[in-house]
Amino acid sequence: MFKQIELAYDFNTLEPYIDELTMKTHYTKHHAAYTNNLNAAIEKSPELSGKTIEELLRNVDSITDLALRMAIRNNGGGFYNHNLYFDTLSLSGSKEPDGELKNQIIESFESVENLKDKLSAAAAMQFGSGWAWVSTDKAGKLQISATANQDNPLMKDGLLTPILGIDVWEHAYYLKYKNLRIDYIKAFWEVLDWNKVNKRYQEAQV
Ligand code: MN3
Q1: pTM > 0.85
Q2: DSSP 3-state of 149
Q3: What separation in Å is there between the alpha carbon of 103 and the centre of ligand 1?
Q4: Domains along the chain?
């Protein structure tokens, strides 16, 4: 049984960057629905029970039943992606990466600002619903990408682990920002907790 992460903040904590109604709807309706639908799909498919969400998503293409594959891809992706997203948000978290992650960012992207610019551009350019990601491989090498719908880098080749994701579905910003996705992306950086990204970076290499 998969469970939504418990939020370490209230729905209104991230105001004015992310508004209360968006947070509440996003968590209690959208994320809850992905989670419930994932659990319902697993319940009907005992061969998938007991697997971690990472195992399910890394191997999603090997599920032969098309309806089941789409259910795991969309709802399992939605479950995983939002757990990552909500976990990495905070108003009082670290505003800069540090340690090994910072070194790797500078090696790959020259500066933290450059990484932020590139990820912001990927998020802005994703056509329609989707996500922009920073992922790492086991050796710690970073990669920026964007995916449609609830896809994520786990599904790509099984070698990447996402450590930072920007949700650019309209449900993530439309109530406050309307069509101005770029303003939401700017605001996202104000509520990203780099400590959480650091932690995910370390864990992804174990
Ligand atoms: Mn969302």
Answers
A1: yes
A2: coil
A3: 30
A4: 20-87 (1.10.287.990), 99-204 (3.55.40.20)
